Amino acid sequence: MTFTEKLNQAWSAKNSMLTVGLDPDPQRFPAELQDKPGAIYAFCRGIVDATAPYACAIKPQIAYFSAERAEDQLEDLCRYIRDTYPDLTLILDAKRGDIGSTAEQYAREAFERYEADAVTVSPFMGLDSVEPYLSWQDKGVIVLCRTSNAGGSDLQFLHTSDGTPLYLHVAGLVADRWNRNGQCALVVGATFPEEIRKVRERIGDMPLLIPGIGAQGGDIPATVQAGRDSKGAGMMINSSRAILYASGGDDWRDAATRMACATRDAINAARA
Ligand SMILES: O=C(O)c1cc(=O)[nH]c(=O)n1[C@@H]1O[C@H](COP(=O)(O)O)[C@@H](O)[C@H]1O
């Protein structure tokens, strides 16, 4: 099944556009997992089990694993997610960008080693740096467009020669030229709803990955109104820290469940 088929199925079967982000920070783990071997896997697996019924996608951030020399735990986790929750879209958040020969290796890492359904990439080095991901015809290629951080404006708001801001130029480039397999998506931050609206107008029904609700304070109703596609769906709305660390106590699993459920419901309420 392709990335977009899986995502469409998850949107309708689970009635959810929530993406649960896995940014496991050992310093914030509950006491029962402090200094335990395999704690990153155990924590993430606990969060996945607690939140899977409420999510369309799961997004592990690779740096949290590699910085702790825990790529083996990420491999085990990806295998667990695929085997236990085949209806969850697995997004590897790696934000890769390099020349083609190196990008081929990054693509193999995402799609062979971790068997992700999609990977996040930077458009900064242009089409030949993205080609190796596009050559995996069923896999999702999620391109940074208007990121959620304030500093994204340093470059993304610069105007091109015809007056189009760079983030909208990227949106047009991906929609018109890079999306030849129909498996591309764009990253647009929930902290910039006006820009989400402009991107949606430009790209039609291409999916959007939207981080920035929860810990970064993005407004859910404004995000959903701006980002919904012609069918009222079209979004993977990510929340990481607000769900992962909803409680630092023994009730961390239940707190994550409650937060994921409440976030999915808030997203759905804004669709109506
Ligand atoms: O690609 C992303 O997921 C991403 C793009 C972006 O523009 N902003 C952004 O915060 N993210 C990711 O979203 C996660 C943070 O989510 P919160 O903890 O909910 O703020 C981190 O893994 C970031 O790398």
Automatic annotation (TrEMBL):
Keywords: Decarboxylase, Lyase, Pyrimidine biosynthesis. The active site is at K95. Residues 17-256 form the Orotidine 5'-phosphate decarboxylase domain. Its EC number is 4.1.1.23. It catalyses: orotidine 5'-phosphate + H(+) = UMP + CO2. One of its GO terms (molecular function) is orotidine-5'-phosphate decarboxylase activity. GO terms for biological process: 'de novo' pyrimidine nucleobase biosynthetic process; 'de novo' UMP biosynthetic process. Transmembrane segments: none annotated. Pfam families: OMPdecase. InterPro entries: Aldolase_TIM, OMPdecase_AS, OMPdecase_type-2, OMPdeCOase_dom, RibuloseP-bd_barrel. Pathway: Pyrimidine metabolism; UMP biosynthesis via de novo pathway; UMP from orotate: step 2/2. Belongs to the OMP decarboxylase family. Type 2 subfamily. NCBIfam families: pyrF_sub2 (TIGR02127). This is Orotidine 5'-phosphate decarboxylase.
